[in-house]
């Protein structure tokens, strides 16, 4: 009887391990497909797959987290304001799901909240910058208090500076130090485990090159 219990326990453990591995593999492959394509339709298709993954593995935080990221980024690629806000609505919902499963915010969820806030701001910057600009900065400060070595903090700050008018302290030169700092911190990360977020490296590398370019403004 004892031997039967041990064998059953081992089998159950192996099954759960395989299930977890399957979810990580499918999530990583889908996220990679989303993150590495520049084709908008392919991004939409991959984002839809991330939605399905988040529904299938509803009790795992990571699918909701990456689905939130995908929806926030897609909002920038849409022209219609209502559709852009709808994407951000989905991103907020998915991020709330992720935080609920984790049980509390951490540096990565605060960074994602900043990204989502910026996406909301970008829909109507003239009328939203005061409210969502504050939320953006507050979340990055909270993330920095937990983990000042999170490269995504400096990537997002760099993007914010890059697109900010020079008269307000923005531009390429102002953004460059942030992208450079993020680049050094990204170099310490790897993509071995999808549940240890590493998004942003590709985008930061591109933005770093842009910031180093000649400023013709």
Give structural notes:
The chain has 2 domains: 27-148, Serine Threonine Protein Phosphatase 5, Tetratricopeptide repeat (Alpha Horseshoe); 151-217. The N and C termini lie far apart (78 Å). The radius of gyration is 19 Å and the shape is globular. The longest helix is centred in the N-terminal third of the chain and has 35 residues, at 2-36. 78% of the residues lie in helices and 0% in strands. Residues 1-20 have low confidence and may be disordered. It is built from 9 helices and no strands. The protein is mainly α.
Work out the helicity level: over 70%
CATH topology of the largest domain: Serine Threonine Protein Phosphatase 5, Tetratricopeptide repeat
The number of distinct structural domains comes to 2
Low-pLDDT ranges? 1-20
How much strand content do the residues show?
under 5%
Distance between the termini: 78 Å
How does the SSE layout of this entry go?
Blueprint: H1 2-36, H2 40-56, H3 61-77, H4 81-102, H5 107-123, H6 125-146, H7 151-163, H8 172-186, H9 201-212
Helix pairs in contact: 1-2, 1-3, 2-3, 3-4, 3-5, 4-5, 5-6, 7-8, 7-9, 8-9
In short:
By secondary structure, the chain is an all-alpha fold. It is 78% helix and 0% strand.
């Amino acid at each position: 009887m004892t031997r039967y219990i041990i064998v059953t326990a081992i089998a159950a453990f192996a099954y759960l391990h395989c299930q977890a591995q399957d979810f990580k593999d499918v999530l990583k492959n889908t996220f990679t497909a989303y993150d590495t394509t520049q084709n908008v339709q392919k991004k939409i298709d991959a984002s839809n797959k991330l939605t399905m993954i988040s529904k299938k593995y509803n009790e795992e935080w990571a699918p909701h987290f990456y689905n939130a990221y995908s929806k926030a980024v897609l909002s920038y690629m849409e022209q219609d304001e209502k559709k852009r806000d709808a994407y951000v609505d989905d991103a907020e919902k998915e991020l709330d799901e992720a935080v609920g499963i984790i049980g509390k915010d951490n540096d990565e969820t605060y960074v994602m909240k900043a990204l989502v806030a910026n996406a909301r701001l970008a829909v109507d910057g003239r009328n939203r910058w005061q409210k969502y600009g504050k939320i953006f900065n507050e979340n990055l400060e909270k993330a920095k208090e937990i983990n000042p070595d999170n490269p995504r903090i400096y990537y997002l700050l760099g993007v914010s500076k890059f697109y900010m008018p020079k008269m307000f302290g923005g531009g390429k030169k102002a953004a460059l130090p942030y992208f450079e700092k993020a680049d050094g911190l990204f170099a310490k990360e790897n993509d071995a485990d999808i549940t240890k977020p590493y998004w942003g490296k590709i985008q930061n590398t591109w933005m770093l090159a842009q910031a180093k370019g000649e400023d013709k403004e």
